[in-house]
Structure of Heavy metal translocating P-type ATPase:
Amino acid sequence: MIPIIPLVVVGGALVAVHKRRQQARLRKKLQHQPVRSGEGVSQQSRAPKPPVNIKRLLRDTVDALLFTDRQQLQDAMDPVSQQAHEQQLKKSRREMQLSLGAVGVASLASFYPLLTPVAVLAVLYLMRETFKLVWKDFKNGRYLSLYLIGAIVTLGLIATGHLVLAIFVGLMEGFFARIINNLEDNSQGRLVNVFSSHPEQVWVVQSGVELQVAFHDLQVGDQVRVNAGEVMPVDGRIVEGFGQVDQHILTGESQPVDKEVGDEVFASTLLLSGRLTVEVMTAGEDTVAAKISQLLNETQSYKDTVILRGRKIADNFIPVKLGIAALTVPLLGPSAGLAVMFADLGGGLGISGSMSVMTYLQILARQQILIKDGRVFEALRAVDTVVFDKTGTLTQEQPTLGNIHAVDGFTEREVLRLAAAAEYRQPHPVARAILARAEAEHLDLPAVEETSYEVGYGIKVGVEGQIVRVGSARFLQREGIALPDSIAAIRQHAEADSHSLIYVAVDDQLAGLLEMEPTIRPEACEMIQVLKQRGMDVYIISGDHEAPTRNMAKKLGVEHYFAETLPENKADLVKQLRDEGRFVCFVGDGINDAIALKAAQVSVSLKGASTAATDTAQIIFMDGTLKNLLPLFELVDEFEDTMRRNKVVAFAPGIMTIGGVFFLHFGVLTSMLILYSSILGELVNIFWPLAKHQEALPELPLEDEGETHVVEKPREDL
């Protein structure tokens, strides 16, 4: 186990560099500018620099080993994760103190034999993570592995009295076992259970009086009162009131929906404005959200079956190495047999594969790509089909103002000018779309004299001595303004294309209609074309009607699409593609996408999506856009090249050693020197990508006193 020594030296050096890094950053505050993915780097980072900044490379290596940047992204996604991480750090410090104490006890046992039993217990403590992995392998029917060999060697060192060597081996074995566990996302409990978010108490209307009752006591037919800002506790039908409901978490719709008496509402959606009385249709485990949650928890996850190839290859060659060594002893003697044992036939792949994953997790984290499960690298390489959810994934939150329909003598320019004046300074996406169009046409907006905003329906303002109303058809009807029959064709056409209409009235007369179209993400078209150039098939899944889905697919150059798809059927379509032999990557952002995300071999979501989607997805784009999908696949290709070099470095020296033992009479010393050289080569191959990407990737700033870990990039669609 002498090969461990160089790794111990390297590890010690990296820890020292990490400590110096913290001191240096207290003296000099680094200035970083947010860099949008795909837009290059800041002017400062473009300045001429040495080919490889050794100090930066060492810092990056430490960050990769400690998962620093990846953890920062996870903390940015979930404050609970940050609390758990802080607790884990405290636990790690305690374990480090115990480990150092164990090293001290083992060293003293060499001089004071009475401490030997305590030293043995200390070594076993250091090996606890390795023993856990051995037991896990046994339960999975894998009886011969590098972990088992490591445990046997450690126990052999204890039995022969080499406690100091045993303690170093125990330290390294435990360290790498911890790395393996961190690379595998075992947080099955993190899969969101939407049903658990219901309130404990709800208000029920009985005989005109509001009574507070326990949520679990609700019955079908009860009338629940829901106020603005509250989450809908049940599926039901509105019997009183009107308001605006955000259904994005359930349906993926980017725009809030107006609801009034007779309309249905669903549990887990948010009432943005108004006050509703809802008759309970389903509650508890029978709601749509709860059923999706149950299906999500019952769906088999593909990632549970994926393992790191390096470890598998290394384990498969253990019998080969042991067999050659056993044959060598009677032919050439025990010394030659021991020399063969130093021949590394892929044994380092179990570690080098894992450390290569760590390296690329670091690179991807710097590019604002959070990989929650290190095993997904293997699956990404096999993807041949990418499926996009349409609403909220291929489209942005802010719509685009398309056609302007002027009526009754008004011009399109007048309708736009008055609507923009009314919506001036309103924060919602529709207002921003109207103002953007007015700015593009260089309109001078008149001053607004008075404002009356009815949340959920529209706005009424005084402009140049006229009363201008902008809002929904219901809003104008409530204001007593008649809608002429001449606009029926406009409404029918807009409905067929899933476009929403905003009505503009001047005084008591309809002036025009603004047609709002979904805004396709600016990066979507180019991204899809490059995916197709890579030989991938692209599909779109949408709950919209056939016509708008077909039109979007045509604009993006996508030949395959599924329209009018119910949320519960998305996963079935993904399974259908898998049954055809396809390897599917699904990209989605709604709770209704969560089951499909879990059904796909690879799942991607965006920061800002529903909690169900981001908890389920293996990969999250932290900039909230799709720009990083292509760099993701490119870096996976590069990772594959690194893994191929790992194989060469892992096998070539071992084959050379065995050949040398049989034909050139290599001894133990020569075999050890070849092994040391191969270890150095593996480390260079593992960490070279960090040097290669130094100039291209910005560092995530560490926190100084009172500063946060991550500088978030502004979402371009907000």
